[in-house]
Amino acid sequence: MKDTVSVSKKLPFKVSARTAKLIGLENFSTEEGAIIELVKNTYDADSKNCLLIFDLKYHSNEGDIEPSINKEFSKIYIIDNGIGMTEKIISNQWMTIGTDDKLYDPRSDKGRVKTGAKGIGRFALNRLGLLTELSTVSIEEGKGVEWLVDWRDFDRKGASVSDVEAILIQNESLNLKNVLLDRFKEYERIGSLINDISFDSGTVIEITELNDDWNLSQLTRLFENLEMLLPPKEQSDFRIDMFSLSNISDFGKVKTAFYDDFDYKVEASYDENNDKILNLDISRKELDIEALEKRYFEVFDYESMKVSPYTLSDFKKDKIKISKPLSSIMSKDVSQDLLDQIGKFDFTFYFLKNTISDDKNDGNIKKYPYRSFNSANRKAWLKKFGGVKIFRDEFRIRPYGEKGEDWLRLGERQSQSPGGAGQRLGGYRIRPNQIAGTVNISRINNISFQDKSGREGIIENDVFELFKNVIKDIISLFEKDRNTIMYYLSELHKDKNKEEELRRKAQEEADNIKKEEEEKEEATNNQQDNGSSDGKSASAYTDREKVLADGVQILTKENEEKDDEIRLLRSLASVGLIISSFAHEVKSLRSRLIPRTEHLINELSKYLNEEELAKDKELDKDDNPFYMIKLMSEEDTKLKHWLDYSLNTLKRDKRERVGLNFSDYFERFKSTWNKALQQRNINLIIEGEDNCKIQAFEVDMDSIFNNLLSNAINAVKGIKGREKTITINWKKVQDNIEISFFDNGKGLDEKYKEDPDEIFVLNESSREDIRGNKIGTGLGLYIVKSIIEEYNQSTINIIGVGQGLSLKITFKTRK
Fold first, then answer.
1. CA dist., res. 379 & res. 386, Å (int)
2. How much is the pTM?
């Protein structure tokens, strides 16, 4: 029997192209996730700017509310001005699936921690469309390179990854800025932005033959998610802009969730390499400090309020600082080994009440000197940005804090201790709908926090479970602070306001006095009618008692009138919310108003001659279709201008307190009203100084000057024989900004000549129809005065009532 010889050899593994593609696509199940991945790539490339541009072409489906897009001819652009790529980097890294470059080189040249490490982000391009063209200029070489791939090549039967090839073209003269300016030359808004950005290096990705139907709601959802992609900051070194070429005004700069109208802000930072100390900065803005000092000063007589951080001097500070070992806020049973694995982190959160009083059972606002705020703004902001979110290396990890996702179980925690902040010590827990926060971690400093395979969340290991409890214990430090303050204010109310019970009894006694007096008067009248009385009957109460009873009832009536006023304002706010809910549908309608009549005329001209129809004497003018369409166009133009004005007031940035420059503001204001004023032959003159700025909500300024302008338009409407003029002047006078607003209209109505300030009273209006019925709401000038007076010591006064009406508004500026 012959010996057999065994021959061995090594066989390489092969990966089919389709399998590689599927592995990549598993990480991008949605088009939104794919876009976000590509945005992260621009951040990793040290880009300061990322532009997302959707060039969507539509099928002409007549009658559709929103026509479907033509995927074959639509495009998506992802543009950045980062470091770009060389031919070598494209060959060795970009073309390597699962590259470990970011894993072993986690920081960019500018020190940013790179957001990805799996090396499969380029498959996000395939998720969005079938063809990709990439143009890039490297900061290292300054040379241009173009890269093209057809992702359908990965689906070839039997093809392995090495069989799939992309096309690489050297283009040393490539100038990204010129290419972009030429490509988007029809869009001034994009062109001006590109002009302001340096494109000495960067990358432009063009995706075609799209996979998804990008309708308006999808684009809006993407834009809103991009707003929550970055952590809240006043200034960021990374800016995202998004545009849709089909309606260039819809989107724009992506703003983060920064907000300065809060009750509490807590900033916590921990570095395990710095003595394991937890540092906290607590900013208190819930209470009116002036009122606390002047009317509630006795609260600081309680022993617990005599020590830091609860003294009056502590409340006057911008922040109070607390430092303590992290282990000191945890139970002794907590594993020190697990605690050491948490690593460095930051946690910032805001506490914002939805309403002026945050608890029905403990909500007497007289107990607490609350600072006033705009409840509607807060509710809208919390609805969008509320919840505690986790950010790793400047980018959000989903789904934490998304759409009410309560990963810290704050709701369950609060339900076990539902008491208000002032009811008892140790019994207060924050509600999940009152908090907005950001937890910042890093893949360098927090290696125990690993992503789940689908990139949706962090693996729930023991370290992460402990970390959640650490976050809740930090929240507990805030709860203790607020609980202590509110509890002793509540105790002070009990001690001082035994009169609350007396007030109730006074109201009851006043009602009894009035009732008994009325009954006695009725009985006396009956006796007189029967002839059995001399008309005199001694009262059981003195004149002083009766005067006091009348006074109590007058105060009660005034309070009821105030309640009616509040109900009216709530009703008006509801109207605004209804308009806001239909904003997206209305935007789509607005974009089609003007072009539709132009298209109709163009189509009609193919079959009819407009000049011949105009010369036809037998054809009545009103029966001429071209004339009818022009009338429709004029009405469409008026409707579009009204929609532009209405939707403009709903913009989010108008509901943020900003440094408002009146020169810029009135230029925008005039532009908004320009067409409406031209149609009425009204000349709006604006002139003033350039350095007039205040901290204000732009929506407040809109409410003031839109109401004033509306009244002025009605005032000048009927004048004849002279130019209709409305003038706005502004200037800085010492620490004030004075704004003069006057028109040359009919002037103040006769009934207000004796007391002109009556025009600012609620429900007061001089506008009547021919039957004498009031047709004005009587709200405009009342709202104007109310808003102005909310700004520190600001005023509005009538300075002239002759030919026209002249008003002067004085805004106090902050030093």
1. 9
2. 0.53
